[in-house]
Amino acid sequence: MALLLQLVDRVVTAKFELDCDIFTVGRNQDNNIVIDDIAVSGLHAQFEREEDPYYEGHFRYFLHDLESTNGSFVNNDSVSRYELKNNDTVKIGWNEFKFIGDDYDKHEATAHILSGN
């Protein structure tokens, strides 16, 4: 399952599992992630999960800005809709998140095998 890690000064302060097809972010209390920040719109953005048509049993994840006042950013680039890749940095208002894709644990295991650790 994909994760969204909230960072403050490069330290993880919160972890969110992207376990549904639509995962919303904003200032309103009915969002999946509520951010009390004046730079964040009431319904700012959403993470979308779609089945990968080429890789059975796997998902693709997108960040979709919902016409927010201050925009959404991936790797410091303003985006309206963007397919996320493992380790992408997402900024919403003054908040920074790290996207960890579905297969992060498999990649970690491969890295340990290859490095001998």
Cα shape = globular
End-to-end C-alpha gap: 24 Å
C-alpha Rg (nearest Å): 15 Å
Strand content: over 45%
The largest sheet, given as strand count, sense and whether it forms a barrel, is: 6 strands, antiparallel
Question: Could you explain the architecture of this structure?
Answer:
The protein has 117 residues and is mainly beta. Helix content is 10%, strand content 45%. The protein has a six-stranded antiparallel sheet with strand order 2-1-11-10-7-8, with no helix packed on it. A five-stranded mixed sheet has the order 4-3-5-6-9, with no helix packed on it. It starts with a strand and ends with a helix. It contains one helix and eleven strands.
Features:
117 residues; 45% strand; 5-stranded mixed beta sheet; mainly beta
Sequence-ordered SSE layout with sheet pairings:
Elements: E1 3-8, E2 11-17, E3 22-26, E4 33-34, E5 45-51, E6 59-65, E7 72-74, E8 77-79, E9 81-83, E10 89-92, E11 95-100, H1 104-115
Parallel strand pairs: 3-4
Antiparallel strand pairs: 1-2, 1-11, 3-5, 5-6, 6-9, 7-8, 7-10, 10-11
Q: What is the gist of this entry?
A:
The protein has 117 residues and is mainly beta. It is built from one helix and eleven strands.
